[in-house]
Design brief:
By secondary structure, the protein is of the alpha+beta class. It has five helices and seven strands; from the N terminus they run βαααβββαβαββ.
Length: 176
Protein backbone atom coordinates (compact mmCIF):
# COMPACT_ATOMS: atom_id res chain seq x y z
CA UNK A 1 0.00 0.00 0.00
CA UNK A 2 1.07 3.56 -0.72
CA UNK A 3 -0.22 6.96 0.31
CA UNK A 4 -0.20 9.97 -2.00
CA UNK A 5 -2.00 13.31 -2.26
CA UNK A 6 -5.62 13.16 -3.41
CA UNK A 7 -6.01 14.12 -7.09
CA UNK A 8 -9.61 15.09 -7.81
CA UNK A 9 -9.54 14.29 -11.53
CA UNK A 10 -8.14 10.83 -10.87
CA UNK A 11 -9.59 9.86 -7.48
CA UNK A 12 -13.07 11.35 -7.10
CA UNK A 13 -14.64 8.62 -9.25
CA UNK A 14 -13.47 6.04 -6.69
CA UNK A 15 -14.20 8.01 -3.52
CA UNK A 16 -17.72 8.88 -4.69
CA UNK A 17 -18.66 5.18 -4.67
CA UNK A 18 -17.43 4.46 -1.13
CA UNK A 19 -19.68 6.65 1.02
CA UNK A 20 -22.77 4.50 0.44
CA UNK A 21 -26.26 5.39 1.55
CA UNK A 22 -27.31 8.45 3.52
CA UNK A 23 -26.64 6.85 6.93
CA UNK A 24 -23.17 5.62 5.96
CA UNK A 25 -22.45 9.06 4.53
CA UNK A 26 -23.45 10.72 7.83
CA UNK A 27 -21.26 8.29 9.80
CA UNK A 28 -18.34 9.15 7.52
CA UNK A 29 -18.52 12.94 7.43
CA UNK A 30 -21.08 14.03 10.07
CA UNK A 31 -22.93 15.66 7.16
CA UNK A 32 -20.16 18.24 6.78
CA UNK A 33 -20.33 17.29 3.10
CA UNK A 34 -23.90 17.45 1.72
CA UNK A 35 -25.56 14.20 0.65
CA UNK A 36 -25.40 13.07 -2.03
CA UNK A 37 -21.77 14.08 -2.36
CA UNK A 38 -20.77 15.84 -5.57
CA UNK A 39 -17.35 16.69 -6.89
CA UNK A 40 -18.11 20.37 -6.28
CA UNK A 41 -19.27 20.06 -2.66
CA UNK A 42 -16.35 17.76 -1.81
CA UNK A 43 -13.95 20.24 -3.42
CA UNK A 44 -15.46 23.11 -1.45
CA UNK A 45 -15.19 21.16 1.83
CA UNK A 46 -11.56 20.20 1.14
CA UNK A 47 -10.66 23.79 0.18
CA UNK A 48 -12.27 25.13 3.36
CA UNK A 49 -10.41 22.56 5.45
CA UNK A 50 -7.12 23.43 3.79
CA UNK A 51 -7.64 27.16 4.28
CA UNK A 52 -8.96 27.06 7.86
CA UNK A 53 -7.15 24.07 9.39
CA UNK A 54 -4.31 23.29 6.91
CA UNK A 55 -5.95 19.96 6.04
CA UNK A 56 -4.39 17.92 3.27
CA UNK A 57 -6.30 15.13 1.50
CA UNK A 58 -4.68 11.76 0.79
CA UNK A 59 -5.48 8.58 -1.11
CA UNK A 60 -4.22 5.15 -0.12
CA UNK A 61 -3.56 2.91 -3.09
CA UNK A 62 -2.76 -0.71 -3.65
CA UNK A 63 0.71 -1.24 -5.05
CA UNK A 64 -0.75 -1.18 -8.59
CA UNK A 65 -2.10 2.36 -7.99
CA UNK A 66 -5.76 1.45 -7.47
CA UNK A 67 -7.30 3.71 -4.78
CA UNK A 68 -8.54 1.86 -1.69
CA UNK A 69 -8.80 4.57 0.99
CA UNK A 70 -9.01 8.29 1.70
CA UNK A 71 -8.39 10.59 4.66
CA UNK A 72 -7.56 14.20 5.49
CA UNK A 73 -4.78 15.17 7.87
CA UNK A 74 -3.68 18.34 9.59
CA UNK A 75 -1.21 19.10 12.35
CA UNK A 76 -1.37 21.82 14.97
CA UNK A 77 2.26 22.93 15.22
CA UNK A 78 1.61 24.72 18.52
CA UNK A 79 1.22 21.41 20.36
CA UNK A 80 2.42 18.92 17.71
CA UNK A 81 -0.95 17.17 17.60
CA UNK A 82 -2.26 15.81 14.32
CA UNK A 83 -5.84 15.09 13.36
CA UNK A 84 -7.34 12.64 10.85
CA UNK A 85 -10.78 13.26 9.40
CA UNK A 86 -12.96 11.89 6.61
CA UNK A 87 -11.32 8.47 6.97
CA UNK A 88 -12.88 5.94 4.58
CA UNK A 89 -11.97 2.70 2.82
CA UNK A 90 -13.40 1.25 -0.37
CA UNK A 91 -16.68 -0.37 0.73
CA UNK A 92 -15.68 -3.62 -1.05
CA UNK A 93 -12.42 -3.78 0.94
CA UNK A 94 -13.77 -3.15 4.45
CA UNK A 95 -13.02 -5.76 7.07
CA UNK A 96 -9.93 -6.96 5.18
CA UNK A 97 -7.24 -4.91 6.97
CA UNK A 98 -6.93 -2.09 4.42
CA UNK A 99 -8.10 0.58 6.87
CA UNK A 100 -5.68 -0.57 9.55
CA UNK A 101 -2.78 -0.59 7.10
CA UNK A 102 -3.73 2.84 5.71
CA UNK A 103 -3.91 4.34 9.20
CA UNK A 104 -0.59 2.81 10.27
CA UNK A 105 1.07 4.32 7.18
CA UNK A 106 -0.67 7.63 7.86
CA UNK A 107 0.52 7.55 11.48
CA UNK A 108 4.08 6.85 10.35
CA UNK A 109 3.86 9.89 8.08
CA UNK A 110 2.36 12.04 10.86
CA UNK A 111 5.01 11.09 13.40
CA UNK A 112 8.09 11.11 11.14
CA UNK A 113 7.32 13.79 8.55
CA UNK A 114 5.16 16.30 10.42
CA UNK A 115 6.61 15.95 13.90
CA UNK A 116 3.30 15.08 15.54
CA UNK A 117 3.61 13.60 19.03
CA UNK A 118 0.00 12.39 18.96
CA UNK A 119 -2.76 12.05 16.36
CA UNK A 120 -6.48 12.19 17.08
CA UNK A 121 -9.64 11.26 15.21
CA UNK A 122 -13.35 11.04 15.98
CA UNK A 123 -15.74 8.15 15.46
CA UNK A 124 -19.46 7.85 16.13
CA UNK A 125 -20.94 5.12 18.33
CA UNK A 126 -23.07 4.10 15.33
CA UNK A 127 -19.90 2.92 13.59
CA UNK A 128 -18.42 0.11 15.74
CA UNK A 129 -16.52 -1.46 12.81
CA UNK A 130 -14.57 1.78 12.26
CA UNK A 131 -13.81 2.02 15.95
CA UNK A 132 -12.39 -1.55 15.97
CA UNK A 133 -10.25 -0.65 12.94
CA UNK A 134 -8.90 2.44 14.70
CA UNK A 135 -8.09 0.42 17.82
CA UNK A 136 -6.19 -2.18 15.73
CA UNK A 137 -4.21 0.67 14.15
CA UNK A 138 -3.12 1.92 17.59
CA UNK A 139 -5.78 4.44 18.63
CA UNK A 140 -7.28 4.44 22.14
CA UNK A 141 -10.35 6.20 23.52
CA UNK A 142 -9.56 9.65 24.85
CA UNK A 143 -12.99 11.19 25.42
CA UNK A 144 -16.66 10.47 24.68
CA UNK A 145 -19.28 13.15 24.11
CA UNK A 146 -22.72 11.65 24.72
CA UNK A 147 -25.45 12.45 22.22
CA UNK A 148 -23.15 14.54 20.04
CA UNK A 149 -24.87 13.85 16.71
CA UNK A 150 -28.39 13.03 15.59
CA UNK A 151 -29.22 11.30 12.35
CA UNK A 152 -32.93 10.85 11.79
CA UNK A 153 -34.14 8.96 14.89
CA UNK A 154 -30.66 7.83 15.98
CA UNK A 155 -28.47 9.65 18.49
CA UNK A 156 -24.75 8.88 18.32
CA UNK A 157 -22.03 9.50 20.86
CA UNK A 158 -18.78 10.92 19.50
CA UNK A 159 -15.62 9.16 20.63
CA UNK A 160 -12.34 11.04 20.31
CA UNK A 161 -9.44 8.61 19.96
CA UNK A 162 -5.69 9.22 20.12
CA UNK A 163 -2.54 7.42 18.96
CA UNK A 164 0.76 8.47 20.48
CA UNK A 165 4.18 8.52 18.83
CA UNK A 166 5.57 5.66 20.87
CA UNK A 167 5.62 2.74 20.54
CA UNK A 168 6.53 2.62 16.84
CA UNK A 169 3.69 1.57 14.55
CA UNK A 170 4.32 -1.57 12.53
CA UNK A 171 2.88 -1.84 9.04
CA UNK A 172 0.95 -5.02 8.28
CA UNK A 173 1.08 -5.82 4.59
CA UNK A 174 -2.15 -6.86 2.84
CA UNK A 175 -1.88 -9.74 0.39
CA UNK A 176 -3.46 -8.59 -2.88
Amino acid sequence: MRIRPYIEGKDYVYLSKWTGDERAHALWCANLIPFPMTKENLRQTLETGAREWTDSAYIATQDDGTPVGFFCYCVDVRDNTGFFKFVIVDSEKRGMGYGEEMLRLALRYAFTMTGAEAVQLNVFSGNPAARRCYEKAGFAEREVVKGAFTWRDEVWDKCNMVARKSPPHKIRQIKQ
